[in-house]
Write a structure and sequence with these properties.
Blueprint lengths: L11 H10 L2 E9 L2 E6 L3 E4 L19 E4 L6 E4 L5 E5 L7 E6 L3 E7 L6 H14 L2 E7 L8 H8 L7 E3 L5 H4 L11 E5 L6 H9 L24 E4 L5 E4 L13 H4 L1 H7 L16 H8 L4 H48 L1
Parallel strand pairs: 8-9, 8-11, 9-10, 11-13
Antiparallel strand pairs: 1-2, 1-4, 2-3, 4-5, 6-7, 12-13
The protein binds guanosine-5'-triphosphate, magnesium ion and zinc ion (ZN).
The site of guanosine-5'-triphosphate has 22 residues, from helix 5.
Length: 347
Amino acid sequence: MATDLARLGFTPWFRNQTLAVGGVPARVFAVHRTGLEVRGEYVDTLLPLGGRWFQEDAQARPTVGDWVLLDDACETIEAVLERTSLLKRMHPGRPNEVQLIAANVDVLLIVTSCNEEFNAGRLERYLALAEEAGLGSLVVLTKADLCEDIEPFVQAAKTLRRGVEVVAVDATDADSVAALVPWCAPGSTVALVGSSGVGKSTILNALAGGELQRTGEIREDDGKGRHTTTHRSLHLLESGLLVVDSPGIRELGLVEASLEDVFDDVQDLAAACRFSDCAHESEPGCAVQAAIISGELNARRLESYRKLQREDLINRENVAERHARVRRFSKNVKAAIQSRQNRNKET
Ligand SMILES: Nc1nc2c(ncn2[C@@H]2O[C@H](COP(=O)(O)OP(=O)(O)OP(=O)(O)O)[C@@H](O)[C@H]2O)c(=O)[nH]1
Ligand SMILES: [Mg+2]
Ligand SMILES: [Zn+2]
């Protein structure tokens, strides 16, 4: 099906790059093991991702939401256009590897439920993810209809970050989900993230006004895993909104956590500590501990901040080390090929 490029989110930023490089632009709608689903003005197809892409760093490979350039025959993916934003995490199964979540997203919809699934520490991670990617974000509390009193959840969500926006909805009711419309401008791309079963696909369906994605009860013990949504995909709605739906995230390991803004309350307090290198433990004149004692700051929040800081330090070092290793390796390979070619020329 042919689609107007502007409807797919093709802005001057991508147009200028396309003019400079040359090629047929298309947007990545899904990533499968067999290839990428891409859509452009005259193309809507599944293209295999050639072997050369796997010699590169995972972050250079196209992911959902990316704009790519195809050859004139629209058979191969030649290049990935520079992104406006990139959501990524530490790969849950491969140590020190980065896994991409989505590219060129404008707003992150962080979905959680008004029940025991709600976890402040986890939400702080998502807020830091949005910050890292430079995106606006919104906390969406689902299952408001199943909860007797949503106020404690709304209040808890509001303490996660200064100025954080929070909306509570019944995701199964389109009128209720309409509360998200201010964050869903036509032509923009939003991404739904959160644990399995919180209602990400249900929200997508409500925004779309029809069933685009299957939704389901959480399956804990069928041996096939508990995710109803099994792969990340982009959806173009009638309204002109583009939505990334993804499987539930169990572990969100941040790659380069931007904690300063998410924890600016802790940072402001720390600035008032007597010692500039205060660890906020038992130092005299510690403003952070004083705020915990007075009830101004939640002790859980300080712990969460510390945990993410430690994790961030380790991840940054490991990812940098891995980059260097991959670069050394490919340099060695290139040198070996070069020297063999030279030898062949000589004989
Ligand atoms: N009553 C009610 N049910 C909801 C709400 N949100 C989601 N559900 C139900 O919760 C179940 C899980 O919803 P999904 O939309 O499949 O959850 P998901 O986040 O997409 O889950 P994964 O695809 O596994 O990551 C479905 O049965 C939904 O109908 C809500 O706000 N109210
Ligand atoms: Mg889903
Ligand atoms: Zn201190």
